[in-house]
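User: Predict the structure for this protein chain, please.
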Amino acid sequence: MLNMLALLQEVAAGANDSRGLALVGAAIAAGLAVLGAGIGIGRIGGSAVEGMARQPENSARIQTAMIISAALIEGVALFVAVIAFLMQGKINY
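Assistant: Here is the predicted structure, written as structure tokens:
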């Protein structure tokens, strides 16, 4: 994913004809980051609820691990989204 962003940024820095493609690439990168984070957090939440239903005595440990994992996934998604927005700012009009 990050390799694709680097290639699109290089294209955006080059010719003026590729401005639209770079904006589309940045939008796709941000969208995929949000989509992937949503799917990942959904799977974590579903698995955590299933684990708590099977072993109620370990629900506190499962919930703690779920929250930490969800926070890490959100951090990565935010990082990719920020890179995509920075890439949009590199384009000169």
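The domain at 35-93 is CATH 1.20.20.10 (F1FO ATP Synthase).
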